[in-house]
Each structure stands twice: as C-alpha cells, then as structure tokens.
Amino acid sequence: MRNFVSRRGVPSHAGPRAKRNFARNVPESERLGAQVVVIGSGAGGAPAAALLAEAGLDVVLLEAGPRVSAAGFTDHEAEMTARLGRLATTADGVQSLYAGACLGGSTTVNDAICWRTPPEVLETWRREHALPELAPDRFAPHVERAWRDVHAEPTPPGLRSRNAALLERGAQRLGWAGGWLARSVRGCAGLGRCNLGCPLDAKQSTLVSYLPRAERAGARVLADTRVLRLRVRAGAAAGVEAVRLDPATRRPRRPLQVDAPLVCLAAGVLESGALLQRSGLRRAAGRGIQLHSSLPVAARFAEPVHGAFGPTMSYAVSQFSDVDGHAGPGYMLENTAVTPLLTAWGLPDFGEPHAEAMQALPFLARAVVVLRDRARGSARAAGEGPARIDYRLLPEDLARLRDGVAALARAYLAAGALEVFAPVHGLGPLRGEADVRRFEAPPLDPTRLAFLYAVHLFGGAAMGGQRAASFCDAEGHSWEVRGLYVTDAAALPGNTGVNPQITILANALRIAGGIAAREGRP
Amino acid sequence: MRREAAEALAALDRRAFLRLLAAAAASGLAPAGCGGAPEAYRPPPGLVLRHLSPRGYAVLRAAAERLVGGRGGELLRAGAVDPAPAVEELLASSPELAGPLGRALLVLELGLPPLIFKLRPFSALAAPERDRVLRELASSPWALQRALFRGVRSVALLGFYGSAACQPVSRYPGLAGSGPADALRPLDA
User: Fold this and answer.
1) Contact between A162 and B72 using a beta-carbon 8 Å cutoff
2) Residue A28: pLDDT above 90?
3) N or C: at which end does chain A have fewer Cβ atoms within 10 angstroms?
C-alpha cells in the first residue's frame, strides 16, 4: 500500500508520478468525484447511502469486503466465516471478535434479530451524554422507519424451532420472563443459515433492502475497496484515499481517490476508530468501545433437536436483562444455532470427550449469554494493518457471565436436558443442581473459557453533547472536521443490552435524514 | 538464548513472552522447512501454502487429529481430511491472525522450556504424548500457555468442523438434509 500513497498522505498517482508508476507497470490510479462518499455497506452505511441518493445526492459507497450474493452462499462454515467476515481477537487474546466484512456488512451474517432500542438506554444516552436528540420520543420515529424498511415481524409459530422451544420450555418451568423475537425476514424457510448468508434472500440484510435502493437511486457501490485514510483540507472533509483490492487474493491492486465534501464513516467498530486515527484525527477516536460479551452453552437431550436448522436465533429469556422494564443484572439468554463449527468452538476440552459431544450434534440445543458489559476498551491503529483492540472484562462482568451460564444450565435442566456443557475447560458436564452450584462457586477465569466472543460492538467515535468527551455531535457530525459524519455503531455512546441492528439502522437513518435535509434536493 | 529466556521468564508477561519467541527465532530454532516432522504430516506435493509454513502445516495436522479426536481424528490421521485449506482461507481474510498462529504452532512444535518441555518435536510425538502436552497447556497455571492452547484448538477445530468433511462425523446433513422440517416439528407435550 505504501507503493500507492506517500507517508504524507499525498496520493502518489497525482501528476507526473502517475506516469512513472505506469511506466513501472503499476496500474494507473482511479479518481472519482461525488457529493458524498459512504465508507461501509452494513447497517450504518447502506441506509445512509440509500437515503442520501434518494435525496438527489451523488453518492459513492466503498466496501472493503467482496460483493456477495445468495447464489454464492454455502453451508460450509469455515469458507463463509472467512469470506463474509473478519475474525479478530482482543489484544490479550482472551476474546474473539467477529464482524461482517462483505457487502452488507454484519447484516449479511447476523441472526436477523430486531429489537427496538430500549427506552432506558436512550434515556441514559440523553442524560449522561447530553444527547436530547436521542430521547425515546424523538428517536422512536427512526426506529419505526427502520422496522418497516427491513420488514421486522415476530417469529411466527411455524418457524419456532425445537432448539428455541427448549429454551422457552425451561424458562417457563422456572417462571422466567421471555419471548419470541422479531426478525427481519420475508419468506424465511428455516434453513438455519442466517450466519452464513441467506441463500434465499429471505433475510432483509442491507444486501436486499437498502443497497438495491441506493443503487436504484444512482449510488455507485464499489466492493473490494479499502479506505486507507480520510482526506481533510482546512478542517473540512475532502474525500478519501482508498485502494482497490484484487477480489481473488485480497491484495491491493490499484489506488483510488474519491473527492467528496461529505464523508459518512460506517466501517464498523473494528475499523472506524482506527481509520480516524490513521487520518490524523486522534481526539476521542477509538475510545470508549463497549461489547456484548457472549458465552455459549450447549445441552444434550434424549430426543432429537436438529438445532442446526430453523431460524438461528428467535427466543430470548429477558428475565435477567436490565432493559425494557427489567431490573436484572444485565444479560439476555438467547438460543443460537447448532451448526458444527460454532458448536465445536463452544464445547469445552478436546479429544474423545469433545468428539463424543459433537457426535450428539442432532440432540444438542444451544443458547448464548449475551452480556451488557460494563467494561470499556479502545481501538488503536497499528500502521496500515488492523486495529489493536484493548478490552478487558471487569470482575463484575465476569461474575454476571458466570451467573448467566448457570441460569442457562438451570433452564436446560428444567427443560429435561440430560447434561449441560458449560464452556469451561476441565469442568465436565453439568447433570444436576449440585453440578451447577459447583460451577458457580469459584470466579470465572476468562482464560479457561472455550469460546468467549462478541459480535455486538459499539463505540470508538461516539456521539455526545460535549465536545471534550465525544468524537461527534448528536447529528453524527465530527467536532473536528466539517462534512465528516459517523453513521455506524461506532457513533453509539454505549451498548444497548439488546441485539443492536435496529438501533444502528435507525441512527443511520436519523443522521442521513439530517444531511439530506440540509444538502439534498429541495 | 538462555540469558534471554532467563530474563523473560523472570517477569513472564506478554512482552517477555514475545521477546522470548523472537529470541528463539533469531537463534535458529525456527527452521523454515519441515525437517524433523514425520513424513505423514508434511504438505503433500502440489499443495500451495500462502500463510502457513510447511512446519506450521505439519504441527497443525499433528495437533488437529488429537484435538478433534474420535472418528474425526481418525480421518485427519489418515489424511482423508486436510484442515489446512480452511485455516488458509481464514488467514487470507484475517491476516492479522497469521503471525500469532505461526508463532503458536512453532512454540508447540519446538517447545520452550519451561513453558513447554519435551524432548522431541510435537509432530514427532506419539499420540499419548501429544495429548499430554495439550492437557498440560489447557490446565496450565500460566495464562500464556492456556492462550496457546486456545489458539491452536480454535484453528484445528475450524479446519475440521468448518469443512463439509465433518458432516458424516457430526451427523450434520448439510444442504442434503431434511433438517428444517425436523427442526420445526413441535416439541412433545
């Protein structure tokens, strides 16, 4: 990449240098002009691109990942995990982080779960971050618009899988609150492939919702294009420097410069803060990252569950959450898919005991503790490479994760499970209340866990009402650079306590709506 | 090398561990080839490795058959399933993982007393000895050893269970199955 862009951030393809590069068989650069450049095509980027293009603005959307479509989605987990997403770890190696890295971003690989932003969360953001624009009554119209756009609807009885129903049964027997979730689908057949890309285009990811709208309205969508840094001139956004990637090798192919006075940053939490830092915008960039740390639990039943199929996620125990009217410790219990790789990662130990549990795959149910973390971390740009994510769970977070695993074990045992597999190496199966008590007695050591991960990531370029404590204002507009907006989960001041797809979509629509009102066609 | 090891182990934090690895590499303990690895684990002729070294490939296979275990382990041992293509694909999309994984496989292979003590390369050990090394790593009092175990375990499981080859073992019918109908059948009352 240094072949293309000088250390000072000056595109090396400008003027006579371009001819020299060409003479050395380096491909000539491209240069595009637009009114808006959107970086990222997931829940934060695609709605902004659609709305702004529909407002008559000339939009270029750049996505680092490949262009994918339903025809290319298979049920080979390793292939799809690598092709559609990006796997990273926290700097201490304890926690895995996974985010979509293809056209559609994380909406291509998420569970399609739709949850309205809890009013308690919005109220906290309003009060603690001085964001009156995010007060529940003011944010609600954007949520409802996103809800309609992606066709969110409750999981119908015909799509309620045995895997999810076993969690419901356990919760009901213990008297816990819970319910069937809304999902953004049209014509779901329960193939169990939400996380691997929906081969039916039933899931209303941005691939089938906002991106076609954006392209119909004239937006130019370029996949395989990685933004290296933002261009800033005299305190105002001027566009981006990017590089086109070879779709086969993912190696840089040729540079691209996009000139645009408006930039919407939606590269995802793993990248947005680091990109700002690489662009010399270090104030508040990369700070305040928060996760929903997650731990999976499996349970073996006597009857087949066939949990690899059915909607990957559709039921949640909300008894222990601290949102939507609950005053619990702050975690959800949600059923999750029983596909081979994810199950293998979550089961503890190795060798014969692990293989024996995997052979029972059709008889396994799985669910995950989704914690509303209290820890906060940071992203730091490491040269041109991926950001270093420093994040360490607090003791109180680990205690709540442990309690969540114990709660799931109790729910599955109440539902009739023969044994429960907590994701702790060396623990052994939990077959009754005594075993659960043995598990929950000592503190949880994160370095002894089989698979601690997060797919819900927040912050790194957060909104706030006070310049000193935030990267951008309530409109997502950078305090530092005119014309630079943050529209993805990086703009959110903290985690949501629920699956965040709708919140991210709604906030992107809100910010883009503001830009369109100011800059769009009258 | 010994002085470096003694210094690093005196305060065994992340930085010290990385320094130790660098010292091991610098002192020639990090061969580029596959010497010492049994023939059975060497890359087959024609296999192009873009992210794993030939030595890393051998260690991955030697570890994967023990970590996967059971019938899957037998398939891996017989060479009927190769875990490397899936791992190579992952490293292509997440290249930041290639360095740490390469170092982890190297340390597992060559040992780094007292972090890992063994007289022969990991890939040359008999199955029970490999199990012993893996068990010691998994239950080690040192977080760095447990991190090494987690990393190698994750990629080994990905190499097997992420591929279609695992379907007969895991009884996951994949696309060919009638799964959705069975999965959506209501529970018995």
Assistant:
1) no
2) no
3) C
